[in-house]
Amino acid sequence: MGELESFGAGLKTKPMILAASKSDVANKTKLTKLKRYAKSTSLELFPISRGYREGVEKLKYAIADKVEEIRRSAPG
Description:
This protein is mainly α. Strand 1, helix 2 (about 30-40) and strand 2 (about 45) form a beta-alpha-beta unit. The termini are far apart. About 50% of the residues lie in helices and about 10% in strands. The chain has a two-stranded parallel ribbon. It has one domain (about 15-75).
């Protein structure tokens, strides 16, 4: 979050989806911490693995849903 804030432009306040890449080889302790963080901040977490092609489709649909949600709520 600090990195997003450093870029400015209100990135820290934009809608977010959290993707954990290489989840098939990830350190299990770090992945557990990431899951806890996502839950505590109400972020959607999508563990993905390109090698096993796991989670990528769910992530793509979640992104499309989020974009549609933002479009519907935008003024005008």
